[in-house]
Specification:
With 399 residues, the protein is an alpha/beta fold. The protein is built from 7 helices and 28 strands. The protein binds adenosine monophosphate and magnesium ion (MG).
Length: 399
């Protein structure tokens, strides 16, 4: 049995690069950017008027002029219209290009307009006020978004503004998720009194969908021959195989033996942790990576967050910072296993993230998962954990 840390480093030593592909900006949200994006023009690309009002020369105001005759009106998108004398102004709209003959904009709120004359009502103006000058945010050729980041709504916005209609993103691996177990039925079926719905695979898929991975879902019975046939097929059609169930000590837990018979090399079986102790991990020579999680719903869910998701992040070039919180209640846990405890997180008024344990009924109790914000990782070497101690947390239920 290996430690959580060793399991993690073995998995991280199997990081793969699945390459890149172009996608339309319409489908880029949530993917991982694989190229830097550059400004094709200055941002703003001209001296942009930032308020509706009038464009004047600041020097004219400084000389004492307060009333300006409106010589023209300029809307956004029009070529700039020059003012020809200090006494003139252009009525100008937000988003318009400031003419080079003016340098400041006085907003309507600070004006009185009567018979084509705009009078400034305020005593003080600043030069270049309400002007968003050309190139102030970024210069043409500057990087506007750096690669190896998840494409967010804000990034879509900037990509659109620089005309990036096709965006280079990381390719996603082909993933298959298999449930195993004769007691499992499809979610739209009515289980008999001794059956359950195969909910885990849907939970795993939902976790992967956070990274836009669209896995295939399959089911296999606890039948050695069927497991072998299905897995053999999966080994040639997918990059990643995720199994739930069938890896423990039971009479019908055939998965590890079949995987090894199919030349998937075991990297480890069993991790010093609760939940998820029977976790099996292996790789095939053809590059396929196999995560075989115990079927207990909480075990599967925890292992997805602690092992599979960080591995996928690394494959996609994402760097996720570890997160920590303060334990808010004393806990005793005697087995020498790393305990992944379900906690509720709350930020107190001092800005401290507090983790309060949620009472649960072990790894079978997944109804409680919904109440948890995170798993707190309590190290195997310690048995008593005091209120105020800081430990790592794995956030779950992130929208
Ligand atoms: P196993 O790891 O196959 O021994 O399964 C452990 C427990 O998890 C058993 O109670 C199974 O019925 C349950 N289980 C296994 N697979 C699933 C699944 N896909 N969805 C929900 N529960 C499952
Ligand atoms: Mg089973």
């Amino acid at each position: 049995m290996i430690t959580v840390q060793d399991a993690e480093s073995i998995i991280q030593s199997q990081v793969r690069n699945y390459g890149t592909e172009y996608v339309s900006i319409h489908h880029a949200l949530g993917r991982v950017l694989a190229e830097d994006l550059y400004a094709d023009r200055d941002i703003p690309s001209f001296n942009r008027v930032a308020m509706d009002g009038i464009a004047i020369r600041f020097a004219a105001f400084q000389k004492g002029l307060r009333s300006f005759s409106i010589s023209a009106t300029q809307a956004a998108g029009q070529p700039p219209i020059d003012i020809l004398a200090d006494e003139e102004c252009i009525e100008i709209m937000t988003g318009a290009a400031l003419p080079s003959s003016a340098d400041s904009v006085v907003r309507y709120e600070d004006l009185e307009i009567l018979n084509g004359i705009a009078t400034v009502k305020v005593d003080q103006l600043k030069q270049a006020q309400n002007v968003h000058s050309q190139g102030k945010d970024r210069r043409a050729g500057d990087v506007v978004a750096t690669k190896d980041k998840i494409i967010t709504a804000a990034m879509i916005n900037i990509a659109a503004s620089v005309g990036a209609t096709k965006i280079l993103v990381k390719k996603l691996p082909r993933v298959v998720i298999l449930s195993t177990g004769d007691e499992l039925v499809e979610v739209d079926q009515q289980p008999s009194p001794y059956q359950i719905r195969r909910s885990n695979v849907y939970g795993i898929r939902a976790v992967l969908e956070q990274l836009q991975v669209q896995p295939t879902l399959l089911h296999i019975a606890d039948d050695e021959a069927q497991i072998r046939t299905e897995l053999q097929e999966c080994l040639s059609n997918y990059d990643v195989i995720i199994l739930s169930g069938g890896v423990s000590m039971g009479k019908f837990d055939h998965v590890p033996a079949v995987l090894e018979a199919l030349q998937v090399k075991k990297q480890f079986h069993k991790v010093q942790q609760r939940p998820g102790k029977p976790f099996w991990f292996g790789v095939h020579d053809n590059g396929v990576v196999v995560f075989a999680f115990p079927g207990n719903p909480v075990s599967t869910f925890m292992c997805m967050h602690r092992y599979c998701l960080p591995w996928l992040h690394a494959c996609l070039g994402l760097k996720e910072a570890e997160q920590y919180a303060v334990l808010n209640e004393a806990i005793t846990f005697n087995p020498s296993l790393t305990f992944f405890m379900q906690v509720e997180l709350r930020m107190n008024k001092h800005g401290t993230l507090l983790a309060t344990p949620i009472e649960g009924n072990g790894s079978g109790d997944f109804a409680n998962l919904l109440l948890a914000d995170a798993f707190m990782e309590l190290p195997a070497e310690q048995n008593t954990f005091n209120s105020g101690e800081v430990f790592r947390v794995l956030k779950i239920n992130k929208s």
